[in-house]
Design a protein that fits this description.
Radius of gyration: 22 Å
Structural class: mainly alpha
Low-confidence stretches: 113-139
Distance between the termini: 63 Å
Mean pLDDT: 77
Strand order of the largest sheet: 1-3-2
Helix content: 40-55%
Shape: globular
Amino acid sequence: MQTEPRSQKDVPYCWQAKEARRIIRDAADGFPRQVTAAAALGVYDSLTEVASDGQSEQFSSAQDWIALKAGLTRKTVQRVLPILRELGLVSYSEPKGMRIRTVYTLLALGPRDSTKGPSVSTLGPSDIHSTGPRYEESPKNLLKELEEESSAPAPAVAVAHSPKTRKRDEAFEALVRIQGASLAALTPTERGSINKALKDIRTVAPDVTAAMLDTAAMRWRRKYPTSSPTAMTLAKHWSELTAGITAESTSIDPDRQARARAQIVSLQHDLDGIRALPVCDDSEAMAARREKAAELQGKINALRPVAGMPAR
C-alpha cells in the first residue's frame, strides 16, 4: 500500500473554481426541499469532470451519464441543473426527451458583491469557464509552464488609459441568459437579434426590467413546455406573456426573488414531468399523479408573488 502524499503534478483534475463551490453553498438555504447542497455540488463536480475529459468548456452529455459520475439519480440531476443555470454556473437548452444528450457550457463567474449572497443578477454569465488550463495537467506541461514563467520578462507598468467599458444593460443580459447564450461569446448576428427584440419590447414597455423578462419567460415555459423561450419569441408574444406585469409588481428583494425563481423552475420541471407521463389504466396511480400535480402547482402559486410574478 502506498503511503506517499499525493502530488498535483501526477494526475489531472476537474476544471472548476473554488468560488463556484462557495456560490452553491451560499445559495443552499434557498434550494427546494428535495435538493441538498451536497447534491448540487455533486452535479457541478460531474459537469466539470466531463468538461475536463472532453477538453472543452462546451460539451454534450446525457443526464444518466452525469448522474452516474455524480453518484446520484437522474431525477436529482434534473432538479439541480435549473438551479446551477439560475446561479450562472452553466448554460444549456432544455432537451426534448428525457434521455437525449444535451449541450452544456460551463460559464465564467461574473462580478460578485461580497456583502450579499449569490443571485442571478450578480452572477450573470460572461465568458467561458476559465478555471484551469485547456489541457490535462501532467508533469511535462506543468514543468513547461514553470519554465515559461521564470523566463518571462517583468510586466511593464501600464501608462495608457484603460478603454471605456460598455454600460451594463440588465434587460439585455436577462434576454441573453433566457436564450441560454453566453454574453461574451455572442456573435454579431446573435447580439443584433437580441437587441432588435429588446428594442421592440421597449417600444411598449420602456421601463422593462430583468424581472419582467424572467416572468415572461416563465410563462412561456409553462404554456409551451417543449419549447425554450428566446428573445424574439418573447418580443413576438409580449402582450400575451406580460398581462398584469409591471416594473413595480416585480420590484422586490433581488436575492429573495432569485431564490424563489430557482424554486419555481425546479417545481415546474417536476410538474411538467408528471404531466408528460402517459395515461395508464391504474386509477390509483392516476389519482396519485393528480394529487402530486396539484401539490406542486400550489407551491408554485405560493412562490409567484415572492418571485415578482402575478398571483394565479
